[in-house]
């Protein structure tokens, strides 16, 4: 009996251990589910970011050609002025005195010329009758001509003095707004070597330009007339629009970084943009409307061995895959025309596509497909061909069953890219609007 008791105890311990393992330590086989999404049609773009400074399109520096003391000022900062309007006056006393002096000298010169002319006429009569020598005749002639030249010289000096007197009044050369007043009443203006800056006038502040510094790595994609969207810190909830007007060839080098000044013109009808503001700009180098889009992470998905237990994996034969770089461009569409019927800009990547591979779910089968992609903004990628709108593209896997409706809701969003919108805003003479 004792022998059977030991056997029963051993069997009981084994059963107890098996129960403990089964209920507490056994790991249940967890199923792996794939997360899919269907292609969506929308807008995709590629942009270049840069910072710049807002400046008026054209400014005029008003200076003084003569030295003197500021006697009167007739305008101030932000004042609107018209062409020919009096802005300031220098003390005219010295200029008036110079004019009076040269007027008196001119009268003396004219009187001397009249006398010398009479003397020359008289000497001519005497010379013609043989009463005087030729030397006396030539002396009288020389004195007359000298007196005549003196009149012309003094007249020129008088003209210069009157011109300097006119320069004592500073007039606006254009219609515009005074951005800078650099003088005060009683201040001495010295115009000996450099013309001093008295005022800076912007011709038209309803039209502004952004002088953006574009990195040399991005400047190759920037071209004239491309659409631009920018923000300023003063109005964080307002989007301003413009277009590329000029790319200046002279480089700027700072800390071994080469940038090129790119001029962006924008409308400022509401006068919200002010000179000197810092703008954060996005230059849209390529844009596609109504493009077929999938998440960029779908291109990185590769099924592993765990999925083979639950799904039938149908990969493409290795010989069908090109050996060259899958990202090499392939010219297979017409420039500016997308397969999806969108309106592309002239620089749209629809003219060039790249080869890529994605996995699509059909029931319990996962099928690898070859596609051609266009624009890729690191969040979404444009599909040129190779997919249908009804395909369920696999983006990732999970060990928890995911509702298909929730899996295909809002796509991932990059915090470093400007907000996406169904239809991109088109430039309307640079008018401001709401931030998308």
Observed structural traits:
alpha+beta; 6-stranded antiparallel beta barrel; Helix Hairpins; rod-shaped; 4-stranded antiparallel beta sheet; about 425 residues; disordered C terminus; about 40% strand; single chain
Helix and strand topology:
Layout (H helix, E strand, L loop, with lengths): L1 H24 L7 E5 L2 E17 L2 E5 L4 E6 L6 E2 L4 E5 L2 H36 L5 H34 L1 E3 L4 E6 L6 E2 L7 E6 L4 E9 L11 E6 L2 E20 L2 E11 L10 E18 L9 H4 L3 E3 L14 E2 L22 E10 L2 E12 L3 E6 L6 E7 L5 H4 L24 E3 L2
Parallel strand pairs: 16-19
Antiparallel strand pairs: 1-21, 2-11, 2-15, 3-10, 4-6, 4-9, 5-8, 6-7, 8-10, 11-14, 12-13, 12-15, 13-14, 13-22, 15-20, 17-18, 18-19, 18-21, 19-20
Helix pairs in contact: 2-3
Give a structural overview.
By secondary structure, the protein is α+β, with helices and mostly antiparallel strands. Among the domains are: 148 residues, no CATH class; 76 residues, Helix Hairpins, CATH 1.10.287.470. Helices cover 23% and strands 38% of the residues. It is built from five helices and 22 strands. It has a six-stranded antiparallel β-barrel with strand order 2-11-14-13-12-15. The protein has a four-stranded antiparallel sheet with strand order 3-10-8-5, with no helix packed on it. A four-stranded antiparallel sheet has the order 7-6-4-9. Strand 19 and strand 20 form a beta hairpin. Helix 2 runs antiparallel to helix 3. It is rod-shaped and about 180 Å long. The termini are far apart. The C terminus is likely disordered.
